[in-house]
Design brief:
Blueprint: E1 2-6, H1 24-33, E2 38-40, H2 49-57, E3 62-63, E4 65-70, H3 78-95, E5 99-104, H4 108-112, H5 125-142, E6 148-152, H6 162-171, E7 177-182, H7 183-188, H8 193-200, E8 204-209, H9 214-223, H10 227-232, H11 246-255, E9 261-264, H12 272-287
Helix pairs in contact: 2-3, 3-5, 8-11
């Protein structure tokens, strides 16, 4: 397993007006300062492959992948969303990345219900089929580009809870669609990675590592916060200081031979660079 970071640790698109947004070059410099040599792409980074490769290469950084939220649940939008996803995949391949991290797109209602969703108002059977078929087709299309498609369970979307995550994995072809296990998002959504890994560890193709502060999460649920409000209150603490049982997750992944990326995301922190460094040291200690 190899560690990486993400620009969201410095520039969060979920709450861009709450914390200072720094130029992408400064964010890349801070990644290096925190000891990283690889990152995922984020929306504050260049969209021109040559510019991106130059910016990363000059700092000794590798590109891991990129995230995209997709509206595949709506059959009439699926073809357009496939084309949009392929455009991102093409950019990613030309820039040197190998993992397309896809999530369900969500909507304002789901983002407002993050962590306290009403599953009875989730996707219909038809929407689940459309989502699964779209992901299978996208995976077929990106495979010849040397790219892995990994689906991200994500707070504020229609694949947030443990039950929704399990259904998504069951609705998709295990030979085509991998799982981007986001440890923190799963805990935020009401479950634990260790509850799903006995059945689905073999589907993991990518990992986002974050912890969850149980006190902040409890307050978010009690007061009906949105995902953005929870981020403002630092719902994701430094690794090892929350409830997500990260050492157990790492041990479980090691037991099934997972050898992919572990991308450390905290999204918001009072001191992002110092926290990113401490998180790397913590995780590398578990991986040693």
């Amino acid at each position: 397993m190899r560690t990486a970071t993400a620009v969201v640790n410095w520039n969060s698109p979920d709450i861009p007006d709450v914390f200072p947004w720094i130029p992408y070059g400064e964010a890349l410099d801070r990644m290096v300062e925190a000891g990283y040599d690889a990152t995922e792409w984020g929306p504050s980074m260049p969209t021109d492959p040559a510019e991106l490769r130059a910016a990363l290469g000059s700092r000794g950084l590798d590109l891991v992948g990129a995230f995209v939220g997709l509206g595949f649940r709506d059959r009439d939008r699926r073809d357009a969303e496939l084309e949009r996803a392929m455009g991102i995949a093409g950019f990613l391949a030309e820039s040197g990345g190998t993992v397309l991290v896809a999530a369900e797109a969500g909507d304002d209602r789901r983002r407002g219900e993050a962590g306290h969703v009403d599953e009875s108002r989730g996707l219909t059977d038809g929407q689940w089929r459309s989502l699964g078929e779209g992901l299978d087709e996208l995976a077929r299309r990106v495979a010849p580009m040397g790219m892995t498609l990994a689906f991200h369970n994500h707070v504020g979307t229609y694949v947030e809870t443990p039950a929704e995550t399990a259904r998504l994995l069951d609705e998709t072809d295990p030979e085509l669609v991998g799982w981007c296990l986001d440890i923190g998002h799963l805990a935020f959504g009401g479950g634990m990675a260790m509850d799903l890994l006995p059945r689905y560890a073999g589907r993991v193709r990518h990992v986002h590592v974050k912890d969850v502060d149980p006190a902040v999460l409890a307050r978010a649920r009690a007061e009906g916060w949105s995902f953005g409000q929870a981020l403002e209150h630092f719902v994701f603490p430094p690794l090892g200081q929350g409830m997500a049982r990260i050492p157990d997750v790492v041990a479980s992944l090691r037991a099934v031979g997972y050898d992919g990326w572990c991308v450390i995301e905290q999204d918001t922190a009072p001191d992002p660079t110092a926290t990113a460094l401490a998180n790397r040291v913590y995780l590398e200690g578990l991986l040693a």
